[in-house]
Amino acid sequence: MKSTESSGLLELFISLFKQFFLRSKESVFWLVIFPTILFLILTTIFGNVEENVELKVKILGESKMLEKVFSDIKQFQTEFVTFTDEAEKLSKFKELNNELRSGKIHAYAVLPRNFDSEFSIATILQKTKLQRKVEVNIYYVPVRQESKLAGDILSSVFNSLGTKEIVPVETYKLSEGEFEYNEFIYPGVVGMAILSVFIFGFMSEVEYLYRRGMLRRFYTTPINIINILIFTALVNMIELILGIFVLSLFANLKGVDVGKYLPSMISHVPLACVLLTLLSLNVLIFSKNQPSRVFVFGQIYFQAQMFAGGFYFPLKFANPVVKNFARFLPLTYTVDAIRLANHLNAFEEGHVLVPIIYILLLGINLILFSKKLKVAEE
């Protein structure tokens, strides 16, 4: 009897797998291949800043010598900002600081008054007891890869002018926490893959089963409706695993240390899958299985979670309103937990607790309103 039941469940799983995966070219592309394509696009655009970006740099002070030096650096658009007195210098300094923070420039340096003459005198006195120093201050934002690159190049330029004893360079990082974009974006694309599989995969497929009246036919058979829902979720999990596998292969080729993320992915991705499965079923209950309502919810939640949940940008440095809103989006904690392995996380706690709270609440709600899943389809 058990053997017959097991073979029947296996046949049911195989038929669902064929229906929702093998026969669906859209699923294969959007849920398995597209995450890898997105990763390659993002890392190609943002991962090689050194090769394809012009860096806007401003120098507060005058120097004919430096004008010639910076004119030979092809990646730099350099502008020298002059001042007449200390009050004007302070005003210009504040303007440059605001421009750097707003992203209008990538870095700036502050020179002492009469830099050229001071540098010449310091060079002459270098090996005497009357040594002098010409201090240069460099400001950049390390969390922005272009700004970090500009700051590094500025430091190299000033250090190449002479020994560090002559021109000691002081750097100021206006925002702490630098990251390698390829390493940062990988967990974000994994989160996007999880979201896509269950919002546009599982939820749409169960809605399709209801709309076609297929689930209603099983009510008169020995097959438990729960098994159909579980097997449909398993089919989507297989799609997700395949998608993450392909993504990881290409991420590894792009220099991402995938192995470092693997332990946290093994522990947190299944939690996210359970959470989104329960969320999808709850949406189907309260949308009364109407395709338009399911579609609207899917689009709103997908866009909100993907773009406000810190998938593609560091929440640690986000606007406080966005950061607080992201705390209510459950998949934010999954992606952040994966990044924790590489110290790229925005939150220090809640990575397990918050998803479990969502699972409990959604599970209780599903039990209370489970009869609505058996509403006959038109």
From TrEMBL:
It comes from the Bacteria. The chain crosses the membrane at residues 28-47, 184-204, 225-253, 265-287, 294-315, 352-369. Residues 25-368 form the ABC-2 type transporter transmembrane domain. It is a multi-pass membrane protein. GO terms for molecular function: ABC-type transporter activity. GO terms for cellular component: membrane. Its main location: membrane. Keywords: Membrane, Transmembrane, Transmembrane helix. It is found in: Membrane. PANTHER family: DOXORUBICIN RESISTANCE ABC TRANSPORTER PERMEASE PROTEIN DRRC-RELATED, TRANSPORT PERMEASE PROTEIN. This is ABC transporter.
